[in-house]
Amino acid sequence: MTRRDEILERISEVVAIPSCAQKAAALLGDPDADFDELARIIEYDPGLTANLLKVVNASFFSGGTSAMRTSQEAIKRLGTTQVLQFVISTGVAPSFVRKIEGYDLSPTMHLQHSVTVALSAQELGTVLGLNPPDYTFTAGLLSGIGKTLLGAYVQVNAHPILDLAMEHGLSFDQAEDKILGINHAELGGLVLESWGLPKEITDVVRHHLRPDEFGQESLVLDLVHIGNVLAKMIGVGLGVDGLNYAPSHIVAERLKLTPEILDIVSANVVSSLDSLWDLFLECAEEACPI
User: Fold this and answer.
1) Cα(60)–Cα(198) distance, integer angstroms
2) CA distance 72 to 133
3) Where are the alpha helices (DSSP H) in 128-153?
4) Burial code of 242-263, b = ≥16 C-beta within 10 A, e = fewer?
């Protein structure tokens, strides 16, 4: 069995692990809970969003209607507190991830980065006047979930990957392919696809690091690709892999990006992040010290 096969077999048994599951569970157990706050936690957490979309898009709930692409849509579809409790409880796994091993990322750091990618992708589309689809935020939020899965369930040591990348001038994901037989973006896309998430989202997650290999144009893929680059430039939630990724010049040209546009988007995202630090702190307080 190859290393790739071992990883896929191991991951096939995984459920999504939400960063703020404990906070959501506490709210659900409070009869006076503010469900606007619950919706906010779901919206800004990759694990909870994945669980919510996984369940709401199952045939039992979907009733054959079109797939839900955002947490807001999903909450409206479910509608009842009882079903919401079920959705969140599926994410409160016994093995709550306290650190993404190998990538040197705490749950809070990864949450910060995921939210920054999502905000950057969405804001970039707005600044460019492209009217990005609602699921742009969701796709950006879930784009790094493969790293969570590798760190939590495979316990990948990223340092040999980084050494190979530096030695041979590879991007980090290319070095992952050579050592693991798969990179975290492809793994994330495959897992989300197995959970029944819409293809529009799983394609973005799988190809967001290498959009040029997708074979067709996708506005959301382009926005999330650049959103990931901007998040790393802003410096939020960097792990051991840091800035060692290759941005696509084709995407930059297709979006007609300029330094001025990137500066505007970055400033707007940083401003938006200021209002979310309390959420990050709440998640950090619930996790045990690393």
Assistant:
1) 16
2) 13
3) 135-142, 145-149
4) eebbebbeebbeebebeeeebe
Q: How far apart are CA 240 and CA 184, in angstroms?
A: 14
Range of the domain at 220: 107-286
What pLDDT, on a 0 to 100 scale, did the predictor assign at position 33?
Answer: 66
Same domain, 38 and 176: no
pLDDT averages per 10-residue partition of the chain, 290 residues: 91 63 60 70 76 69 69 70 50 45 69 88 97 89 86 79 89 92 95 84 96 95 96 78 81 97 96 75 48
In a domain, 130, yes or no: yes
Token pair of 142 as six digits: 């879930």
Is the pTM of the predicted complex or chain greater than 0.90?
no
**CA dist list (Å): 232 to 42, 207, 235, 241:** 23, 17, 5, 10
DSSP element (H, E) containing 122: helix 107-127
Asked whether residue 97 is domain-assigned, the answer is: no
CA–CA distances in Å: residue 68 to residues 50, 75, 134, 209: 11, 10, 11, 24
Structure tokens at 262: 């990137």
Structure tokens at 231: 């998040």
Helix H or strand E segment including 57: none
Quickly tell me which residue has 């410096």 as its tokens. 235
151 is a domain residue? yes
Residue 86, C-beta contacts closer than 8 angstroms, at least 6 positions apart: 55
> Is residue 253 domain-shared with residue 111, that is, in the same domain?
yes
Provide the pLDDT for residue 79: 60
- Nearest of 246, 199, 209 to residue 69 by alpha carbon: 199
275 three-class SS: coil
